[in-house]
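User: Hey, quick favor. My workstation is busy. Could you predict this chain's structure for me?
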Amino acid sequence: MIIALFLVLLALCVASLAIGSRPVPPGTVLRVLTDAATHLGHGGSDQRAPALRMSVQDYSAVSDLRGPRTVIALLSGSALGLAGGLIQSLTRNPMAEAGILGLNAGAAFAVALAITVVGVTSPSGFVWCALLGAFIGTVAVWFVGTAGGGVSPERLTLAGVALGAVLAGITSAMRLTNPQRFSALLVWESGDLAQRGWSLVLPALPFLVVGVGLGLLLGPAMNALALGDDLAVAGGVHLTRTRVLMVLAITLLAGSATVMAGPISFVGLMAPHVARWIVGPDQRRLLPLAMAISAGDMLVADVLARLVLWPGEVPTGILAAVIGAPVLIWLVRRAGASAL
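Assistant: No problem, here it is.
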């Protein structure tokens, strides 16, 4: 299965690099990738394209335009799938996803505030604002959800929903005051990967790597938590520490994915259900599979976004929801599909 998933993701990456308003043959894509691996950091598209016997436009389309969005789709999809599995286990809610802890709302509010106060107008300027907003939103939800003493999944869920609604309302009010000034925010919130570049990948990548490592290491402890708090404690699991680390991993994963791709819906919600249906509830196997499934889902959505209105495009976030919603409905209608 691992080899099959790897081959599918590789084929989707090649398709993502080849398909667009200017189609590029797969052979040309492979030559560009080979050249990029061989001459990393040596020369730009105008120097390398003649040596590869292809047009500068083809080389630039693959390396400069579709390369970043393919990497963003792959990385953000993987992060959202892992974050979705973690948050469904943390809240014991099979319908939970990253936005339930206030991540998306916190990131969007921080970006809107930066536009209003600082005058940021480009997606590359949103990076640190969105990361800080996602972190502050999660911390606020954590303090509200643990105010009564101890960590309650139910209180965390309610606090996240309440905070998300409040911040989303404030952000909408700010946006209505000056729609033209907030046009960049609308593009970012729609999940339009065509507007992304390497300037969004590099700052978020360290946070994503740490989040992935931490999330995968928590698999055994999450299996113990699924048996109930008493049995988990008897098995040597420190409840508060484990849940704090889960919240930290979710913040890093969903925050970095939101920075790169915008607030994408249904990807992190659907992928853990598909993985659970295939390999069962063991988090050690479920989480890596959810990462691969959500990465493939994002790549498929991004490719279809270029074909629906070709030669124009629709935002990838819209296609991700269109694909994810029917699949999720089908899964939850299966007997036991939504059980954690």
